[in-house]
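Thread: "does anyone have the structure for this chain?"

Original post by V.I.:
We have the sequence but no experimental structure in hand. Need at least a predicted one for the grant figures.
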Amino acid sequence: MSAAMNDFAQRLEPVGRILQLPDWHVWGSSAIDGPDGKVHLFTSRWPTESGFRGWSTHSEIMHSVADSAEGPFEVVDVPLRGRGGRHWDAAMVHNPTIHEFDGRYYLFHIGNLDGRPFTQQIGAAVSDDLYGPWMRLDEPLLGPGMYRAWDWLMATNPAIVRHPNGQFWLYYKSWDLKDLKRKMGLAISDHVLGPYEKHPENPIVDYSPEGKQVEDAYVWVQDGLFYMLMADDNEGVVRKHGGALITSEDGIHWSEPVLGYETTDVYFPGEPVRRFERPQVLIRDGRPAYLYLAMQSDANASSAVLRVSDRAI
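Reply from O.Q.:
Generated one for you, tokens below.
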């Protein structure tokens, strides 16, 4: 285990809550530095009147900008909403993660057809400019596996990385109905927009033998090593409602988990929030600079931002 991995969580410094929008739940901000010198966030939101589980029926993706990664952020547009009709993303779009490859921007997300939470598939929108317009794909990039496969229920929570060999590796979550545990899979393509082929060793991250599970992976490659940061779920692979961090030399076989980030009460004591989810990392010069997290609360969910200290990995 690298020393950098071992103390990642201790390098996190809380900045504050961002995007606290009246009448909206805000969830999972993905950040990128723009050519205009601003930081651009792509974030899920849905009306609070629809309830917390309204994400599966009403979620849309908003775009906000700031002069600093720490905010304050101003909402400038809503590039993606549910398309209606019989599209694969008719009801909603959710869980954005923004990336730039070869001068174009790719906004990966999930969607579903009819609002049922366990019918998600993974898709993407493409643009030459962070302000759009965005070209949406007619078909999903990745969907459920064959019936009775471990991932036959859904494919969700996309995490994309360019492998050192030039391929695009798309990590995803599914919920295995055989043991009711969330597990991580991997699909690989020679092109960012596919077609993607699922890896034969899937699921590649599976804590079900210990009766535990994780979700919401974010993956990056640094100095030839793969890092995966995940939300630790109710059972506590490392720390219940905190984060788990693992590394890999090949992106397939992973280390034992260590603490990725602490729980909400450590960074934001006294705040009326319950837990973190959906970690997304702002990478600068090949290294993590900021961590954005969704913060669940009874009133309305918001995003939070934590700074990675100067000792950043």
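V.I.: this helps a lot. Residues 29 and 43 are 4 Å apart (CA to CA).
O.Q.: and The longest helix spans residues 3-6.
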